[in-house]
Amino acid sequence: TKDCLAEIEAADALGAFVHKTPEIALERAAAADARIKAGDAPAMCGIPIGIKDLFCTKGVESQAASAILEGFKPEYESTVSQNLADAGAVMLGKLNMDEFAMGSSNETSTYGNAVNPWKIDDRELTPGGSSGGSASAVAADLCLAATGTDTGGSIRQPAAFTGIVGLKPTYGRCSRWGVVAFASSLDQAGPMTKTVRDAAIMMESMASHDPKDSTSAELAVPNFEAMLTGDIKGKKIGIPKEYRMDGMPEEIEQLWADGTAMLKDAGAEIVDISLPHTKYALPAYYVIAPAEASSNLARYDGVRYGHRAKLAAGDGIVEMYEKTRAEGFGPEVQRRVMIGTYVLSAGFYDAYYNRARKVRALIKKDFDDVFAADVDAILTPATPSAAFGLGEMKDADPVQMYLNDVFTVTVNLAGLPGISVPAGLDKQGLPLGLQLIGRPWEEGDLLNTAYALE
Ligand code: GLN
């Protein structure tokens, strides 16, 4: 813990940790030492970790990287961060992210962007988003592991951009209680770690049934680590043709082919599959996620949390709402709220929101059909490219940024588990990731397949 705290101080330029909690860390580390001495050391005992700023942590700033939550210190602890603390993990502080987890480059954060520890010459790169601080911190060895959240790829894309492992569990595996809501039917917390084994250990500690989240599954949490045998003989791995996009860079094609060959060499059976509605996933996601966000973000009204705008004489409650939200929300969040309220409005609900929900059902059915044909896991690239330069996409057409999520959002729409595993370097020497998608609730099997690919 002390070494990590020193590393964090030395690595301020990465912008990964946005609230540091050394006192809490040292206290928990001492408690962990005592537990180890007493012979009562749970799975994560004494392991220094970072917590994404989206998780509410009792008495510690939890701002979701938004100015509107400035100074907000929750009275309660999220179930996931509590589970980790109960398992002995030591929180070092809170990690940078895109504002309300909306973004793919960590550049919408009110704290300013985090930086990828990987560089090309002197060019600074994005660590990805929205869990960019988590990815940067783990990749730079500031902590041993970090929590992330994934609504449309926010664990898997930054993991791929920084050469680490990121697992989005099945929807319902981790409690959403105390995690600031973005799009409630898509949001899931998950581990971001150096290795698949670490992801298995951390996953087991994070997951639980929680009566405080009505979508949390009433299922036993398996010992995921014990499932890492590396034996994938006879497993059927599907390669979906729809993920072979036009204009896909050759090195991504190559990465995918190499990953396929590795699984085959390990004894898996490779089959070509079709997920016919894939091309509608991104537009459906960018209707559903903003719709849910616009509703979830209605609570930031200047009354209950954080920031309240200064008012002029004669201003009433409407002006207070308007000024507070105009000042407190950044441009990407405002864009999402506007899109969301538009697609939910009486005149456009059927044309957009309802249609997107139908598309979502078809996307889920595509996966159901493939799994019904005995496919065990699906292999795809995690991202369409390696990490891009900071500032490069920020002011471009927002749709360019949204295209980063093309391989990841399907998994959230279908509620499935997905993992990004480091799979080599591109021509410039930057990390690339492969994604494995598994059957619902079979994270153990998925982790084992990822283990064979590692
Ligand atoms: N990049 C996607 C978005 O901006 C995904 C975000 C996420 O998974 N939290 O919505």
TrEMBL record:
It catalyses: L-glutamyl-tRNA(Gln) + L-glutamine + ATP + H2O = L-glutaminyl-tRNA(Gln) + L-glutamate + ADP + phosphate + H(+). One of its GO terms (cellular component) is glutamyl-tRNA(Gln) amidotransferase complex. One of its GO terms (molecular function) is ATP binding. Keywords: ATP-binding, Ligase, Nucleotide-binding, Protein biosynthesis. One of its GO terms (biological process) is translation. It holds the Pfam family Amidase. InterPro entries: Amidase (IPR000120), Amidase_CS (IPR020556), Amidase_dom (IPR023631), AS_sf (IPR036928), GatA (IPR004412). Residues 1-447 form the Amidase domain. PROSITE patterns: AMIDASES. Allows the formation of correctly charged Gln-tRNA(Gln) through the transamidation of misacylated Glu-tRNA(Gln) in organisms which lack glutaminyl-tRNA synthetase. The reaction takes place in the presence of glutamine and ATP through an activated gamma-phospho-Glu-tRNA(Gln). Belongs to the amidase family. GatA subfamily. Heterotrimer of A, B and C subunits. This is Glutamyl-tRNA(Gln) amidotransferase subunit A. It comes from Actibacterium pelagium. The lineage of its organism: Bacteria, Pseudomonadati, Pseudomonadota, Alphaproteobacteria, Rhodobacterales.
